[in-house]
Task: inverse folding
């Protein structure tokens, strides 16, 4: 039987597309190669603990993601802990607070104005300079892409504002070191966050594991609408006939389809698209993309051990952000996040785990030793969001009229910079891809 829409890949992008199509009564079949759904944002069960393949953070600016949760029937408060931006960064060397920014619940841009004016980490001169120059920086378009470091230095912002706030934010948001990261993309992220309603700066920390946060509810929603989500079902080949896609080949099975959405990560899309002359140009571009790792080190302490806030930034250390998993009902469990490349990648899990444990012991001398340590490495966690990366990112359309692309690497609107590869980028591309098909379906 011919399927209406086949979606290859059950990460957040593929599932977002499937939910959107299901809501419009277009039946979908989702094929996922892994034994579980969720892709790069999923829960994992290891050593008797339910953790994530990597600690994730969402922000209030993730409007597409929040809207999708709602349409899937998920109540935000059940799955996300929302609190107004309260960033605290501590310096491992001095053990002093390096930066402390709390944005009050005021309409934008007053929240930023009062946040910076009340920031104790800056003196009066630095506050005025930060306010004026940050505002100018976000307003002036970056015509020719340059690195974030160059862009920030040229703006003449106070050193502390750059090193203790904007550079760590760049690394967190783009998983790319500021000396390589694209100023165009970072400016877009900052505009979406700070030149927007005050709620966009809220931090949203998952209260449940990542599979429960969206993928499992998405699967239920798809099935309730007559669709299906099949795991351990890798697509091996796209099958064409006369410049149209006829369907997809699974292991020992051909599935005929009217429309196909390729929602795999770029490296898997590259393989499938490289097979056919008309899509080889896209595959060639994808080949040039580079990736950045994210490592999460989970450290279990006795249940009474806690941070004063749900997350804490760490400067001059291998640990970049520390999350207290008490929010996910896991008291005593800390998740230390290390984004992007660095010498830590060369260390084995034991060495890395012990190193992070020593950093935490130095920051919190009253904590006992961790009872257990687990290291989860994702070598290709995100796209490297380097200068000029948008030139390599494909759009959703392909030369084959019934084949579309979606995923955190797909560029949705040519006239605006892309989002770095995040859950929001994945969801946005999935929903918009589905909307294209909905518009074209009589
Ligand atoms: C450790 C880590 C930390 C992160 N932290 C954050 C964060 O804090 N905030 C944030 O917003 N983002 C974060 N991200 C990024 C975010 O998780 C990704 O951008 C997002 O999950 C990508 O979703 P996707 O659907 O585009 O791709 P994927 O999740 O890669 O989904 C693609 C799916 O396709 C499947 N597939 C591949 N080949 C085939 C095939 N041939 N047939 C069938 N299926 C196939 C894969 O198994 C996968 O399930 C993080 C990522 C990682 C790994």
Result:
């Amino acid at each position: 039987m011919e399927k209406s829409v086949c979606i290859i890949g059950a990460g957040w992008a593929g599932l977002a597309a499937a939910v959107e199509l299901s809501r419009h009564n277009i039946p979908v079949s989702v094929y996922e190669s892994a034994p579980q759904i969720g892709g790069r944002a999923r829960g994992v069960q290891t050593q008797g603990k339910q953790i994530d393949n990597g600690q994730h953070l969402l922000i209030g600016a993730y409007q597409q993601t929040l809207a999708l949760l709602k349409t899937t029937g998920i109540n935000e408060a059940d799955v996300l802990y929302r609190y107004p931006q309260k960033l605290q960064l501590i310096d491992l060397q001095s053990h002093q607070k390096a930066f402390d920014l709390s944005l009050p619940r005021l309409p934008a841009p007053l929240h930023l104005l009062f946040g910076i004016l009340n920031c104790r980490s800056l003196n009066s001169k630095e506050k005025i300079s930060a306010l004026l120059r940050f505002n100018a920086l976000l307003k002036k378009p970056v015509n020719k892409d340059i690195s974030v470091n160059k862009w920030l230095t040229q703006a003449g912002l106070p050193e502390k504002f750059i090193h203790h706030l904007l550079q760590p934010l760049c690394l967190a948001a783009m998983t790319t070191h500021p000396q390589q990261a694209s100023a165009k993309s970072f400016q877009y992220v900052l505009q979406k966050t700070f030149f927007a309603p005050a709620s966009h700066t809220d931090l949203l920390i998952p209260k449940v594991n990542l599979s429960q946060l969206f993928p499992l509810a998405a699967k239920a929603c798809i099935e309730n609408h007559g669709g299906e989500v099949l795991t351990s079902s890798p697509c091996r080949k796209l099958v064409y006939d006369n410049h149209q896609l006829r369907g997809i080949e699974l292991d020992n099975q051909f599935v005929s389809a009217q429309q196909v959405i390729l929602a795999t990560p770029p490296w898997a899309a590259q393989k499938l698209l490289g097979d056919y002359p008309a899509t080889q140009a896209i595959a060639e571009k994808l080949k040039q993309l580079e990736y950045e790792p994210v490592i999460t080190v989970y450290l279990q302490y006795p249940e009474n051990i806690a941070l004063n806030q749900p997350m804490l930034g760490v400067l001059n250390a291998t640990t970049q952000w520390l999350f207290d998993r008490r929010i996910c009902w896991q008291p005593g469990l800390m998740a230390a996040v290390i984004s992007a490349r660095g010498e830590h990648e060369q260390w084995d899990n034991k060495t890395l785990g012990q190193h992070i444990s020593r950093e935490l012991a130095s920051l919190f001398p009253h904590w006992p030793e961790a009872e257990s340590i687990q290291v989860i490495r994702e070598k290709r966690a995100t796209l490297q969001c380097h200068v000029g990366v948008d030139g390599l990112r494909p759009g959703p359309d392909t030369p084959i009229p019934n084949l579309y692309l979606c995923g955190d690497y797909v560029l949705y609107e040519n006239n605006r910079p892309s989002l770095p590869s995040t859950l929001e980028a994945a969801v946005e591309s999935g929903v918009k891809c589905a909307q294209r098909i909905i518009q074209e379906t009589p």
Notes: Residues 408 and 425 are 5 Å apart (CA to CA).
